[in-house]
Design goal:
Layout lengths: L7 E5 L8 E6 L4 E6 L12 H4 L14 E3 L8 E3 L1 H19 L4 E5 L5 H15 L4 E3 L6 H11 L9 H5 L2 E5 L3 H4 L1 H12 L4 E5 L5 H5 L2 E3 L6 H14 L5 H7 E2 L1 H8 L4 H8 L3 H13 L3 E5 L1 H4 L4 H14 L9 E4 L6 H7 L5 E2 L3 E2 L3 H10 L15 H9 L5 E5 L3 H4 L3 H10 L2 E6 L12 E4 L8 E4 L4 E5 L12 H11 L11 H11 L12 H7 L2 E2 L25 E2 L18 E6 L15 H6 L5 E3 L1 H7 L6 E5 L4 E8 L7 E5 L32 E7 L4 H4 L2 H4 L1
Parallel strand pairs: 6-7, 6-16, 8-9, 8-12, 9-10, 11-22, 12-13, 16-17, 17-18, 23-27, 24-26
Antiparallel strand pairs: 1-2, 2-3, 4-5, 4-18, 14-15, 19-20, 20-21, 23-28, 25-26, 25-28
Helix pairs in contact: 2-21, 3-16, 3-21, 3-22, 4-15, 9-12, 9-15, 12-13, 18-20
The structure holds ligand MGD (2 copies), iron/sulfur cluster and molybdenum atom.
The site of iron/sulfur cluster has 14 residues, from α1 and α7.
């Protein structure tokens, strides 16, 4: 018997952090199509091609419908009833904990899960199992921006809102290809620029679709954005366009920063960033002339080994010019995944706890112990492992079990040769996913089928801190269940029931919301019923006080002094420097019509027609030097590994920089994942790996004939 469900259900797009509202049209049990929700303040009915085709990703032959298990990786996975999978997961986790302690167990979570699932998994691990090795794919994505905002402003979470887009008269994009990655948001910017109401500058080594609409494109050398941001602020200062009152009243650290800026004269900046001097000066003029500036930044900044420093430098520009906390102004970190904001709210990183609390702070641990009804000292005081260290510790045998929920690390982590060794050496790998197979299920001992966001109630929080209730539109297929449900079942089978008795997502949300009371991300007055009746709401949404769409409007910051911090950030050494052997830089990223490892978009014909195949984007000058032509098969080699691909000549690339999209990995294009080559060197402050920049060499496959021969013939 089918559950009776309404036929037009309000939910959300499962893809990017713009967080567009969807209406799912069903005939009861089946999803017929999705439309943009005209009432949702993120999109007012608009959708990009990915959002518009979500219905085709829900009921595919590749959906994971049943649990599976095997004793070891030499066996085949066999289908089993849910209770068997739960019992096996519990038994094997228990046995590892008995022998090696709880810290031999790790969780790897995702910004694509509901806040409720993120919260419960994090609580189970940190409060009951007592392991802080809980990290997430946000470490590869938002860690540097989050850390940058925390250090500069006292709190993670962007201060701006979408309504600022129409109020700004200048838009600066640093390392963001928003035209492809945040399309509905970018359309609002493009509309303003095209009407001549706002100016736009794009900083990206490649001439992207975002750069196409901009008045100015600065093709920076990868990894030099910090120098550029310091250089720009220096030019503001030199023409007296800083806000001395704002600096004095609301910030600390100006004298040190002021001194540092002396080291960033425009000649040096232009030369080091690889941009013409006149362009730098013209860009500075546009920004200096603007009254209301929004600076968007994403992976071109975050995924570098100094992403936190660059985030600080971006925020410096806004603080020193007083362009923050005012309409149409502010540093605007764009969130990648649909609910990475929710994940950060619940503290699903190895250093954090719910309500923007830190494991490292004794008072924060004490507060969470109280909220969770735990004895004092129950939460471990040592910070858990970040994603890169987590897989390193798996390789060395320190971490023996990992439960991966909603991510595909065997494709998306840097330095895949190491990640594969790590997964192979783990005693227990539990993979909870909505699709099968994935690159990561190859390493799974237990596979648990997850419901998609359209198949459950729950919340996502988008880039502008807006929480939307998603209502269940259709039932999940087979034995698939919401992610939190699997966590609760395994916990119960291990004997942890107190504290994990939640019957539904609404109850989990209520408990989570209480943990935010009085915190910078206060949403303690929110609950599912309120979101159902009043629609999506932004935090802060406190029980006491007023909600607000913009933060820091009073110039007060959640730091001990109440002031924001200006940081004097100087560039350290390059992580993976070019050399004679590896003379080119590899950068990686996205295309408009594919999503990450393609478990969803790979099923959609319309999308695959528009972005059909992987490629290696290369400037014609580089190709000429290497005697390569369009369509040639090549190897990309780095100090860690190599991948193969097909050259696409493109004058929009920067000379010396090749770009490979991240979407085609082992399942779709064997031996072609750029992550075979990328570096797992991390930003020391955020532990985010420098996925955007590594030194490589390129050579024609035909010039490497020996590599195609069996080893026995070569020797
Ligand atoms: N279509 C689509 N949209 C998505 C996603 C997707 O998979 N597909 N994923 C979502 C997620 S999780 C994320 S995190 C976002 C990512 O959104 P973006 O960060 O906009 O996307 P990327 O393509 O990873 O990188 C953006 C740009 O950074 C540039 N870049 C590389 N190195 C540097 C550098 O050193 N400096 C500068 N200034 N730029 C550099 C690249 O050339 C690229 O154009 O997209 C979200 N939206
Ligand atoms: N070289 C390079 N590598 C990168 C990046 C880059 O720019 N360059 N970007 C990094 C960034 S920013 C990100 S965010 C990561 C993304 O990397 P991943 O997180 O690995 O990417 P996805 O393919 O989105 O993986 C999500 C997995 O969860 C499954 N899934 C979807 N919905 C659900 C659900 O509701 N529940 C469960 N349990 N599973 C679900 C999907 O089928 C898929 O297998 O990649 C990172 N890796
Ligand atoms: S812009 Fe992002 S949230 Fe909106 S429809 Fe496209 S992928 Fe979905
Ligand atoms: Mo991301």
């Amino acid at each position: 018997m089918w559950e009776q469900m309404p036929e037009h259900v309000k939910t959300l797009c499962p893809y990017c952090g713009v967080g567009c509202g969807l209406i799912a049209d069903t005939d009861g049990p089946r999803l017929l199509r999705v439309r943009g929700d005209p009432d949702h303040p993120a999109n007012f009915g608009k959708l990009c091609p990915k959002g518009a085709t979500v219905a085709q990703t829900v009921n595919t032959p590749t959906r994971l419908r049943y649990a599976m298990q095997r004793d070891d990786l030499y066996d085949d996975l066999t289908v089993c009833p849910p209770h068997t999978a739960v019992r096996e997961a519990a038994r094997r986790l228990d046995s590892i904990i008995q022998q090696h302690g709880p810290q031999a167990v790790a969780f790897y979570l995702s910004g694509q899960l509901t806040t409720e699932s993120q919260y419960l998994a994090n609580k189970f691990a940190k409060a009951y199992l007592r392991t802080n090795h809980v990290d997430s794919n946000s470490r590869l994505c938002m860690a540097s921006a989050a850390q940058g905002m925390k250090l500069s402003l006292g709190s993670d979470g962007p201060p701006t809102c979408y309504a600022d887009i129409e109020l700004a008269d200048a838009h600066l994009f640093v390392g963001s290809n928003a035209a492809h990655c945040h399309p509905v948001l970018f359309d609002r910017v493009a509309a303003r620029v095209q009407k001549g109401k706002a100016r736009c500058i794009v900083v990206d080594p490649r001439r992207t679709a975002t750069a196409e609409i901009a008045e100015m494109h600065l093709a920076v050398r990868p990894g030099t954005d910090l120098i550029l941001m310091n250089g720009l602020l220096r030019l503001f200062r030199d023409v007296g366009k800083i806000d001395k009152d704002y600096i004095a009243d609301h910030t600390e650290g100006w004298p040190e920063l002021n001194t540092l800026l002396d080291q960033y004269p425009p000649e040096f900046v232009a030369r080091t960033c690889g941009i013409p001097y006149e362009q730098l000066m013209a860009a500075a003029r546009i920004l200096i002339e603007s009254e209301r500036l929004l600076t968007y930044w994403t992976m071109g900044v975050n995924q570098t080994v100094h992403g936190t420093f660059t985030s600080n430098a971006i925020i410096n520009l806004h603080l020193a010019t007083g362009k923050i906390g005012k309409p149409g102004c502010g540093p605007f970190s764009l969130t990648g995944q649909p609910n990475a904001m929710g994940g950060r709210d619940v503290g699903y990183m190895s250093h954090s706890l719910p309500g923007y609390r830190s494991i490292a702070e004794p008072e924060h641990r004490r507060q969470m112990e109280q909220l969770w009804g735990l004895p004092a000292g129950a939460i471990r005081d040592e910070i858990g492992y970040d994603a890169v260290r987590l897989f390193e510790a798996m390789e060395s045998g320190e971490i023996r079990a990992v439960w991966i929920i909603g991510s595909n690390p065997a494709a998306s982590m840097p330095n895949l040769p190491r990640v594969r060794r790590a997964l192979e050496s783990a005693e227990l790998v539990i993979v909870q996913d909505a699709y099968y197979p994935t690159e990561t299920t190859s390493y799974a001992h237990i596979v648990l089928p997850a419901a998609l966001n359209l198949e459950q109630d729950g919340t996502f929080c988008n880039t502008e801190r807006r929480v939307t209730l998603m209502q269940k539109a259709v039932p999940p297929p087979g034995d698939a269940m919401p992610d939190w449900w699997w966590v609760k079942q395994v916990a119960a089978a291990m004997g942890f029931t107190a504290g994990l008795r939640h019957e539904n997502a609404a109850q989990i949300f209520d408990e989570f919301a209480r943990t935010t009371a009085g915190r910078p991300n206060d949403q303690s007055a929110m609950h599912h019923e309120l979101l159902r009746v009043k629609g999506p709401q932004q935090w802060p949404y406190p029980a006491m006080g007023r909600p607000s769409e913009r933060r820091y409007t009073d110039g007060k910051f959640p730091t001990p002094s109440g002031k924001a911090r200006l940081w004097a950030r100087d560039l350290g050494p390059e992580a993976d420097a070019t050399s004679l052997e590896f003379p080119l830089l590899l950068t990686t990223g996205r295309v408009l019509n594919q999503w990450h490892t393609r478990t969803k978009t790979g099923n959609v014909d319309q999308l695959n027609k528009m972005d059909p195949a992987p490629f290696i984007q290369m400037h014609p000058d580089d190709a000429r030097e290497l005697d390569l032509s369009d369509g040639d098969a090549v190897f990309v080699r780095s100090r860690r590994g190599k991948c193969r691909g097909t050259v696409r000549l493109d004058a929009n690339a920067s000379p010396g920089v090749v770009f490979v999209p991240i979407h085609w990995n082992e399942l779709w294009a064997p031996a072609s994942s750029p992550n075979e080559a990328t570096t797992d060197d991390v930003d020391p402050l955020s532990k985010q790996p420098g996925l955007k920049c590594c030194a490589v060499s390129i050579s024609a496959v035909s010039a490497n004939r020996t590599e195609q021969l069996p080893l026995s013939l070569i020797e």
